[in-house]
């Protein structure tokens, strides 16, 4: 059985850990608020880019010959981009992305396809490397506060490999931010955009807006300068970059929310452990006092 001194040392250690987790929770909470604001600012812009791309596709008389808009004849090599964090101590934030990527890879291999791995964030890169996978593209060091340049670098590298026929399809797996307590694993098809039908699909809000336009009998007139074909050539790369940038921001907010929740849980567990250790220390102190009293009594009886 541990001595009273050992238990006191353990209590002191747990209290120090509790202070660290409390500080980490406060830092994560502050960063989460900033990440939420960045998402709120980006979502209208991403929505506008999506609507503009869809309207431009509708306006063109002939879809231009763009490699990023064309599906490859055979999808033998499928790229999977895992969007993770650079740091741990965030509960299941990173591990659930890696697990989702491995599940998807098994499905693709069962279909006879080859998987090409890409990873954003040190945790994703290290997990794939540990499992013996070759990582064709890796980007690290910015997950706490990703910039648009980071999304542009990722988009440029992956688009180049798609154009060079090194991959025939690219899927992106990331944590979609819902709340500090909930992060949903999301899978998006990043390339090809040949699914011109996908560009024509709208989210519910866009559908409601166009429904209101039809009901009111008014339709916004779009004037294109230069021609829609030329505009579409410029919009497609932007569309991919914005998609990746949004995933990075969603992942960052999810990471801070997951870390805040994990640190709060760690504080609660530390508090319970401190209570248990304190109870154990009190019992040992009581046992020692009882033992000393019994020794005094026994000595007194021996002298009488």
Would you kindly provide a written description of the structure presented here, covering whatever features stand out?
- It is a single chain.
- The protein is of the alpha/beta class and 304 residues long.
- The protein has a single domain (28-259), classed as Pyruvate Kinase, Chain: A, domain 1, CATH 3.40.1380.
- Helices cover 63% and strands 13% of the residues.
- It contains 7 helices and 5 strands; from the N terminus they run H-E-H-E-H-E-H-E-E-H-H-H.
- The protein has helices at residues 4-59, 93-110, 122-130, 148-163, 196-200, 204-216, 228-303, and strands at residues 77-83, 114-120, 135-139, 169-179, 182-191.
- Strands 3-2-1-4-5 form a 5-stranded mixed β-sheet, sandwiched between helices.
- Helix 1 (4-59) runs antiparallel to helix 7 (228-303) and helix 4 (148-163) packs across helix 7.
- Mean pLDDT is 85; it is low at 202-208.
